[in-house]
Structure formats: C-alpha cells, structure tokens
Amino acid sequence: MNPDIGQDGEDGAILDVIDRFLRVEVRPHVKRLEHADEYPTAIVERMKEMGLFGCIIPVEYGGLGLSTATYAAVVARIASVWMSLSGVINSHLIMAAAVLRHGTEEQRRELLPRFASGALRGGIGLTEPDAGTDLQAIRTRAVKDGDHYVVNGSKTWITNSGQGGCIALLVKTDPVVEPRHRGMSLFIAEKGPGFVVSRKLQKLGYRGIDTCELRFDDYRVPASRLVGGVEGRGLQQVLGGLELGRINVAARGLGVATAAMQDAVAYAQQRKTFGKPICEHQAIQLKLGEMATRVEAARLLVQSAARAYDRGERCDMEAGMAKYFATEAAMENALECMRVHGAYGYSPEYDVERYFRDAPLLLIGEGTNEMQRIIIAKQLVQRNPA
C-alpha cells in the first residue's frame, strides 16, 4: 500500500519510477545512514539526475512541472521509506517557489534552471535564536551599500545549509518601520565571504540531513538577489511559500503514518500469542483500525490542500488542517506501531523507533501545530462572517 493522493497517467508513471528508486537505491542504505547521521551524498546525486530538485518548477525553467498534488504524493512515498530524504527537497522548493511566485523574470531565468538541476541547492533561512514562530522579531540586518547589501546576524535550525549552496534569507532592511513586516526583505543568498556555517546541530531524529546554525559577518549579497526587486515584501513572500512547505510536511506525516501502519499490520500477522496471530486479538484490531482511519483522513486532507494550491487559491486553512492532522497522525501511529511491536519496537533493528524519533519534528516544523489551529480558526471566522 502506497500513500497515494490520486494520480494516474503520466504522473502515475513518475510515481512508479519513484517507487523503484526508493526500493532499489534508498531502502537498503537507510539504517546505516540514519544511525551514522551521514549525509546521503550518492542518493542526492541520483535525485539530481532524476530532476527531483525541480519537481514543481515549470518545464520552461528546466523543471519537471509537477502539480502540487503529484509532488505531495512523491514526498509521501519518500517519507514512508526515509523521512529525512524528503527534507532535502522541501525547503529547497520553498525557496524556488518564492522566486517563481515573487521574483522578477530575470531572477526566474537566472535562478530557477540552477535550482531545477540541483546545481544550486539550498533552503530557507528564517529562524533565529530568539525568533521562530514570531518571524517579525528577527534581527538579522541588511544595509544597502551601492549595488550590494551588507548582512549581519545569525540564523538557526536551517535545513540544507551545510551541504547546500544558498538560502532564501529573510532579513530586516528597515528595523524601525511600523508595522514591522514592512521592514522585512527576502534575498537569495549564495555562500561566500562572511556567510559562515558555524555548526551542525544534533537532533533526536531527522538524521542524515544537515541542519545548521549560520552567522553572517559583513556578508555582501548583490541587490539583484532581492526577491522581486523591492524592499519590504519579504514576510509576505515567505508566508506564501510556507503554504507549500506545510503541504510538504503534511505529506511527510502521511508517509510516516502509512509506514507505521504497514509495519504494524505486517508484524501483527507474524507475531503469535496464546496460540494465534496478535492481529486476531481485539486490542490489536482496535489499534489497527484507528491507524488505518488516520492514514485515509490524512491522505484526503493533503489531497485537498494540494489541489487548492494548484488552483492558485489562498489555502493557509487547508494547508494548516492537512499539516496539523497528518503530522499528529504520524505521531500517534508511530507510538501505536511501537506498542504493537512491544519490546522489538524499541530496538534500532526495526524501523519503528525511527518513526517515533522522526514524527515529533513534524509537529514543530513549518509552523507548530498550535499555530496551525490558530490559523484554521482565524480563517474559519473570516470565511464565515456572522
């Protein structure tokens, strides 16, 4: 059973290629890379050859031009085998989406083909030590100096920043203007003098992929890399990209929830107690029934959000619902899978403990699930005035 989101035809053929890639070139190496916390260099090179860094980038800019619904299905499949690997393309494509939606045509033609080929890979530089959910509180500053901006500050928990070559960097270009978001701008910042990767962060799960702290010491970024060419629009540009990011994280949740369910179903048919497989015990059947229902509900929510994004509609409510439910489903299914496996679920010999370590990140990344519920409620009221 695959975490399908309803594709056929050409998109179905793409998913078949993904399935084979995961089965032959990824699954045999996951345990070793995961436990060594080793960056999957060879696998990433294959992903570049397959064009996965250009999943949602239009064909005219060198990408695959996949719909968001098909992209979400790709992510769910990858996450069901190794969730970390889906992160290699997620923040990279949020960066690409910011350029695609908000960049100048010159920026699109210069950057998107490099993004699509994987020649220039990266992520999004938003979070700071004292600014996570409250992005308007960032302190990293960019000051105009001729045809460049000089950047000073720091970022933390930045995925793809160690092995990648650039990030979409959110900064303050006017730290005193009110409202604060008018003083925020977004740059595509390639590595160079003053762009310092200060350390790789250790994590409970989500291993193999690089997550780092960054420091900017008089780092100079060309003014031509200001997304859209106008200061003060950075927050809106980032928030639009986060809709895609939340759909991605929801798809990851679907993948992890699906994998946990599949492993639980398989083990419950193999393990016997009191003379019969444990899948015949009512206590286990209750767990399996709940797990399957969570997977199907998550699949439908991800599908709904992805299709709304493809239609060009505002979908922060739909993306928030999908992200909230699917990631909670991943966490709950991971725990129930561990309970079905008993002591074996606590062993690194099985994949179950990895699901249990990976799932908590999904509750936090791309906006906490507490924040998703607030977004949902605000949109619910706005869309249904009394």
Task: Describe the fold and architecture.
It is built from 11 helices and 9 strands. By secondary structure, it is α+β, with helices and mostly antiparallel strands. The radius of gyration is 21 Å and the shape is globular. The N and C termini lie far apart (44 Å).
Secondary structure elements and pairings:
Layout: H1 9-26, H2 30-36, H3 41-50, H4 68-81, H5 83-102, H6 105-117, E1 122-125, E2 141-145, E3 148-159, E4 166-172, E5 184-190, E6 195-200, E7 211-222, H7 234-270, E8 272-273, E9 276-277, H8 282-310, H9 316-341, H10 352-364, H11 369-383
Parallel strand pairs: 1-4
Antiparallel strand pairs: 2-3, 3-7, 4-5, 6-7, 8-9
Helix pairs in contact: 1-4, 4-5, 4-7, 5-6, 5-7, 7-8, 7-9, 7-10, 8-9, 9-10, 9-11
Descriptive tags:
386 residues, four-stranded antiparallel β-sheet, three-stranded mixed β-sheet, 52% helix
Distance between the termini: 44 Å
Q: What fraction strand? A: 5-15%
Using the alpha-carbon principal axes, give the shape: globular
Instruction: Pick out the low-confidence regions.
Output: none
- Oligomeric state, counting identical vs distinct chains: single chain
Radius of gyration, in angstroms, nearest whole number: 21 Å
Largest sheet: number of strands, sense, barrel closure: 4 strands, antiparallel
